[in-house]
Structures are given as C-alpha cells and as structure tokens.
Amino acid sequence: MKILLIYPYCLERRRDETDVSAVPMGLYYIGALLRENGYDAEILSCHGMAGEPERIREILREKAPRVIGFSVLNANRWGAVEIAGIAKALDPGVTTVVGGVAATFLWQHLLGRFAEIDLAVAGEGEFPFLELVKALAATGNRPGKKSLAEIVGHIPGVAFRRRGTPVLNEAAPPIPDLDRLPNPARHFTYQHLSLTRGCPGRCTFCASPRLWDRKVRFHSADYFVDQMSLLHARGVGFFYVSDDTFTLKKDRVIAVCREILRRGLRISWAAISRVDAVDEEVLRWMRRAGCVQISYGVESGSERIRKRLGKNITREQIQRAFALTTAFGILARAYFIYGCPGETWETLEETQALIREIKPLAAVFYILDILPGTALYDEIRQRDGITDDIWGRRIEDIPYYTRDPDLPEALILAFGRSLRDHFRAHLPGFADAAALKDDPALYPCHADFLSRLAMTFSHGDYADHPEAPATAERLYARALGYHPDHRAFLGLGILHQRRQRFSASIRILEEGIRHFPGSESLNLAAAVGHMNMGRYNQALAVLEKFPHSKAAADYAAQCRHALKNAADNSIRPEEDGENPHEPVDTAP
To answer: Where in this protein does the record put region Disordered (predicted)?
Structure first.
C-alpha cells in the first residue's frame, strides 16, 4: 500500500522562505516508522507549488497513493485542502489524513467543513498514524461495508466523522521514550533535527504550551548524534536544531557536544534557546562542537509587553545571554514581535534601545499574530466572540492589530519600518563591537565566526548595505588576526579585487595558499588577480594545477587568447602595476 506524506504549500509568499520551506521533522519520524513496519512510505514537499495544480496532479497520478498524510500548519492548511481535493478527483477511494499543530487544534473545523479530508490526527502523530494505516490495510484500504468510523473509531488520537459529525477519540498517550522511534536518518536526508519535544514556557502567542502541556521529553545524546552522523555521511554539513529550547537540560547538551567531538564530525549547526537557559560552560561546549548561531526570543524591549506576551525574562538576562553568546564566537540572533497589546512609539523606542544595548548580529521582526491553540487566541475568542469558522477564510493567521482599534495598520507598518531601519543602520557598528573571549583555544572558532559574519556583508544578506564593503574588509582582516581561515583569505582577496587592488589581492591569496595549498578557490582567485594585472603566464602556471576544473579551463582559455593577441600585436603581456584593462571577475 503506497503512502504519501505531504508537506503542503502555504497561502502567502514570504520575503525569506527559510523558516517555512523545510519539511517538518514529524513527517520524517512517521515515514521511518511506516517503513520499518513494512509500508511503502514516501515524503513529498509541495512547498512552492501553489498555483500549480497540474504539476501536483501529475505527481499524484504517478505515485498513486492509497493513503495521503498531510503535515498541516495554520499557514498551509488551505494547501492541504486543495491537494486533497486534487487527490480525491483522481481517486475517490484515496484516504486523506491531516496531522500537525493545525489539525490538533482545528480537527473539528477541518472535518466539519472540508469533505476532501477524511481523517485527522491530533497531538503526537507517529503511532496513531501507524495504527490508522494498519487498520486501513486490514480492509485493503477499500472499506466496503465498513465505514471509516468503524475502522478507526478505536484508535487514540484519531478524529473522524460519525454520521457526518466530527468526533475525536481519546488522546494518544505521549511517547515516554523518544528513542523508541526509528531513526529517520536511516531512511531520509534532511537538515532539521530536534533533541526535545515540548517547552516549559508560557508564551501567549505560541501553541506549544497546549500542544505539549508544558512538558519536555528528550532524545538521548547518542540517538541525536547518530542522526547527525548518518546525515553527514550523505553530505549534510549544516544542521538546524529546531527545538523550542535546545539548552533546557545542560548535561544533555554537553553530552551531545562531547559526542560530536568524539566522533570527529566536522559540522556546523544553529540552535534556538532562551536567554535564561545558557551559561559560559554550555556555550563553550556548543561552540567547540560546531554551533555557529543561536536564536533567542527577545520579543520586546518593554518589560510590560514581555509580561503581556508571557515572556518571563529580564533585561539583564537578555543582555547577559547576548554578550556571552557573542563572546564565544556564536552569532546571536534576536526575534522581536511588534504590534502587541499596548504597543506605542514609546514601547518601540524601548525595543530600539535594547537593540542598541545587546547588539544582535541578526534580527527577525514579526507582527504579532493570533493562531489556534494559543492563549492569545482563546482570549480573543472570549472577548470578541469569534469561532473557529474564521479559519474558513483564506487567511494564514489573524494579525493582532486587526482586533485592536488602538493599532491602525498604518501605525503597525510604520513600527516595522522603524525597527528594521534602526537595526540595519546600527549593524556595522554591532559587527565591529563584537567582543570575543581572549582564549587561545577559541581563536580558530573566532576566526571562523568573524569570517562568517564578514561574508554576510560581502556576499550575503547585508551585501547591499552602504557600509558593507568596508565592514566586511575589517571583519576578514580581524579574523586573520586570530587564525588562518580559508574563508577570510578568499573573502578578503576577492574584496581587494573588487576594488581593483590586485597586488594586495594576490598577496593575501598567496598567503592563504601557503596555508591551504590544495584550495582550488584560492588558487583560481589568485590566478584571476594575475590576469587582471596582465600576468597571463603566471596565471596559467596556477590554473594548470587544476586540470579537471572547468572554471580553471575557462580562465586558462582566456589567458591563452590574451597571450596570442599580445603576440600577434607585438604587445608585452606582463605588467608591473595594476592592470589598466577591463577587470576579470572572480567567482564568489
């Protein structure tokens, strides 16, 4: 029996799709559990397929699934409904099942409104979905005289229709030992991992407190690092650790870091934490084990608004966490929320003041949204009398400001522009002010940190900042002051070339080559420097070290063409100074 696990597309496009493009971890766990129980399970990401029904139709026709499971967030629930409709049109006998956070809190709405959806799984989905598939398989997935209610009516956590009315079975018990789940990395390749399930926080804008009942369960360090090892062997070098609060259990985090180091995994990874859940010891271990970024929910500079959002953290804890994280060469990223109850220009200025104090090196600014399963949603329902029927509209969420007459849309948009402009204006200064711990054991990490940061100014998100080139140059040079760093040599060399300082570029690149003689990128960049100075023979001598490189071959052809033209015209190709001719571009 073919089972297709689908991550649907969202309603709206985003400026940065990173946070919504990844397939949720739950689908990989379900897929692994199905496969290890003998079922043909496949995962399909439909992210980015909005408006492409024919493409989806062709995929479904080719896969011919008997059961489709959808991982449904609030933002992609309409995608699930639309894909389910396509599937039903192709095969009315296919069983469509929704699971995930939106299905957990909107199962009654989804089953009551959309005939395209047959079943829902509320809460932790692995074993309920497996039991559901087993029950369907026992009927040949052709229920015949048995209704779906009769087939799945005994399975905890499953919702169905009984005589047209949505009904939810008793809740499935949480999995007591997460290591009982098959390791998804034996079956699939992905970048997002989680050590834990759950969060003890009480944030009013987040559904986690109700989804997990504020309880936290942990994988063992071995299980978690086994995933990394298997994925790394297949070429994955960067991981997103997606726990709500990765550092809740300090000893477990240190055990993970020790195991990464013991196995010699050369990886990088980013995590999420709370400002009151880190200290020097855990940050040191995380940095040594490859952590390069930690995101913290700061939310607001106003203590009153933080309390209103259920964010029980102090200004001092925020300041300490950001200073310590940066000190160990980990990029501290801040999440901020604006358009909150009681938001004014005064509270916004408090947030801007806090930004100047903590100097985040990356920041994400969100408008406060109301989502099912959150305390804020319950409050608005009670206050305004709205029901779950509101999700019958083609909306991803409800911006809080639309329910608050004191927060007109124009004001919210002005708040957002002001926050983003303020952060961007101060960013080069934040980068220059990064105070790193003076510990020789951390010098290679510091060089890596500074060169990564520099690259965001030379090639990344901040490359269009007016001060980007000068900031990147300072950061690359500072990185090399700590330790020879491949990225810093290359980045600084390319920056010099962009400014047509070809002699300086060649000097820094050749120094890098002394440390990394086999680096194709450093050698090719140096060759381009020679070409820009008219030193085609010297460039060829470098390029010929890489006979199997297409880029080297292309540059070599340019050199030979230039030498031939020089010979034909009796022009001396070698120049002593900077090249007066049109510069050759260096590949980034």
So the answer is: 566-588
Tell me how far apart the alpha carbons of residues 336 and 358 are, in angstroms, rounded to a whole number.
Answer: 13
pLDDT at 578 over 60: no
The share of the chain scoring above pLDDT 70, in percent, equals 96
Question: Residue 586 above 80 pLDDT?
Answer: no
C-alpha torsion sign, points 392, 393, 399, 402: negative
In this prediction, residue 553 carries a pLDDT of 96
How far is it, in rounded angstroms, from Cα 528 to Cα 374? 56
Instruction: Report the relative pairing of strands 291-299 and 331-338 from DSSP bridges.
Output: parallel
pLDDT at 517: 96
Q: Which two tokens stand for residue 97?
A: 């099942």
Q: Helix 409-432 crosses helix 468-482 at what angle (to 10 degrees)?
A: 40
The encoded tokens of residue 376 equal 């804020």
Nearest alpha carbon to residue 129 among 85, 97, 161 = 97
β-sheet bridge partners, residue 332: 294
The pTM of the full predicted model, rounded to 2 decimals, is: 0.93
Structure tokens at 520: 């194709």
Domains in the chain, please, with CATH? 2-168 (3.40.50.280), 191-376 (3.20.20.70), 440-568 (1.25.40.10)
* Lookup: tokens for 3: 């089972």
